[in-house]
Amino acid sequence: MFEKEIDKLLERELRLYTDLFDRYDVAPLKGIVEKEIRNKGFRLFFPGNLEHLFQEYYFLKTINRIRIMLIFGIIVYLSFGYADYVLFPEMYKDLWTIRLFMLFILLPTLIYVFISKNYRMTYWVYCFMALMAGVSIVGMMFVLPPTEAQIYYAGLFLIIFFLYTLSGLPFLFSSIDSWAIALIYFLIDISFLHSPEKYLAANMFFISSANILGMIGGYILEYYVRKDFLLSLKVYMDKKELEELNERLRHLSNHDELTGLANRRRLKEVFQKELKRAIRERIPLTVLMIDIDYFKAYNDKYGHIKGDFALKEVGRIIGRHARRPADIVSRWGGEEFVVVLSNVNGEQAYQVAQAIHKDVLERNIEHRSSPFKKLTVSIGGFSEIPDNVRTIDDFISKADKALYRAKETGRNRVVVYNGKL
Question: Is 335 one of the annotated active-site residues of the chain?
Answer without folding.
Answer: yes
